[in-house]
């Protein structure tokens, strides 16, 4: 089967940073599905794993953690899917990725593809939707069923125009929250407003002053999707007493957690690979939440965040997508379709 992998960790400008290869078609066992990939999307995690480092692989390493496709074979213990089913998912960072014509994935982290979307539109969603869903509704314990209560609550989403922010804005609005998000360029401001953001502030300026201008003194929740170190003091300043902050971006310097002490505020990490990485007892929750997201997409309650499509799926186009993401200025999601 066709695949795209790496043997060395090189700058994306180097043609050997990602190369076209041929691999044997894998065989599903246990609860694994064998999926024929129709579309994939590229995420910042792809570029971080591929980033230059002094390391070489003996066997090609396959990246990629977003896909939409069709089940062609199932392991002997599978109960959720059968051959012919259309699926979408984000996979596991500890297993070979989706930059391949066929891919093995545990069915417990797979959702049913939205019937009203193409494979390209569907591939844009899983990783970011899982991240946003877990970050808000599990880590921050926001009850999406209690929309009446949530109408009096504010959430600040830092980095609203990126992949996770684009779906988080929509899910937060569906849950009934008042959404404040950050964007700094005219095109990103227009994008987040089109997704339902109530207010837009600039992440290059102090949060507290900007919030006061829209008559908001503090926020109940913060979802940090960009540079935890840079925004830490600002987040601590505007979080409400007993509020919650969730970040998906690892810190490079020690965080001054003491800033949250007098407010009894919560800080929590979200890493959407935790469940498949550790085979947690509640791993199937990713299957369940993806099915809920699929229903919301089919109902047009939320929409795909696909913003650019490349074709076909080969090393040159994936290198192009990596280069685009590494600029730090992409809006929504970049998807590749068709091997």
From TrEMBL:
Which SUPFAM superfamilies does the entry link to? Answer: GroES-like (SSF50129), NAD(P)-binding Rossmann-fold domains (SSF51735)
* Gene3D superfamilies in UniProt: Medium-chain alcohol dehydrogenases, catalytic domain, NAD(P)-binding Rossmann-like Domain
Entry's Pfam families? ADH_N, ADH_zinc_N_2
Per its UniProt record, what InterPro entries does this chain match? ADH-like_N (IPR013154), ADH_Zn_typ-1 (IPR014182), ER (IPR020843), GroES-like_sf (IPR011032), Lipid_raft_assoc_Zn_ADH (IPR052585), NAD(P)-bd_dom_sf (IPR036291), Quin_OxRdtase/zeta-crystal_CS (IPR002364)
- Sorted UniProt keywords: Metal-binding, Oxidoreductase, Zinc
UniProt domain Enoyl reductase (ER): residue ranges: 5-336
Q: Does the keyword Zinc apply?
A: yes
SMART domains, alphabetized:
PKS_ER (SM00829)
Q: Which family does it belong to?
A: Belongs to the zinc-containing alcohol dehydrogenase family. Quinone oxidoreductase subfamily.
Cite the NCBIfam families for this sequence.
Answer: adh_fam_1 (TIGR02817)
Q: What is this protein called?
A: Zinc-type alcohol dehydrogenase-like protein
Query: What organism does the record attribute this protein to?
Result: Bacillus yunxiaonensis
């Amino acid at each position: 089967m066709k695949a795209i992998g790496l043997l060395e960790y090189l700058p994306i400008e180097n043609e050997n940073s990602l190369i076209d290869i041929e691999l044997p078609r894998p065989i599903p066992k246990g609860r694994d599905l064998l999926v024929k990939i129709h579309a994939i999307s590229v995420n910042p995690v792809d570029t971080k794993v591929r980033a230059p480092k002094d390391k070489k692989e003996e066997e090609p390493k396959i990246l990629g953690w977003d896909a939409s496709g069709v089940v062609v074979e199932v392991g002997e213990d599978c109960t959720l899917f059968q051959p012919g089913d259309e699926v979408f998912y984000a996979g596991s960072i500890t297993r070979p990725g989706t930059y391949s014509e066929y891919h093995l994935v545990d069915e417990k982290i797979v959702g049913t593809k939205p019937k009203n979307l193409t494979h390209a539109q569907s591939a844009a969603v899983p990783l970011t939707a899982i991240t946003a869903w877990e970050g808000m509704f599990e880590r921050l314990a926001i009850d999406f069923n209690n929309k009446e209560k949530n109408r009096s609550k504010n959430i600040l989403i830092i980095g609203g125009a990126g992949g996770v922010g684009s779906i988080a804005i929509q899910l937060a609005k569906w849950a009934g929250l008042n959404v404040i998000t950050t964007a700094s360029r005219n095109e990103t401001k227009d994008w987040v407003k089109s997704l339902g953001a109530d207010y837009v502030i600039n992440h290059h300026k102090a949060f507290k002053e900007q919030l006061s201008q829209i008559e908001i003194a503090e926020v109940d929740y913060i979802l940090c999707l960009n540079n935890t170190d840079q925004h830490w003091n600002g987040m601590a300043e505007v979080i409400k007493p007993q509020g919650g902050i969730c970040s998906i971006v690892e810190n490079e310097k020690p965080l001054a957690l003491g800033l949250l002490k007098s407010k009894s505020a919560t800080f929590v990490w979200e890493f959407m690979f935790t469940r498949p990485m550790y085979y947690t007892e509640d791993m199937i929750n990713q299957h369940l939440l993806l099915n809920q997201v699929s229903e919301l997409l089919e109902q047009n309650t939320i929409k795909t965040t696909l913003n650019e499509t490349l074709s076909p799926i080969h090393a040159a186009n994936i290198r192009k997508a990596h280069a685009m993401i590494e600029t730090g200025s992409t809006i929504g999601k970049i998807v590749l379709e068709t091997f």
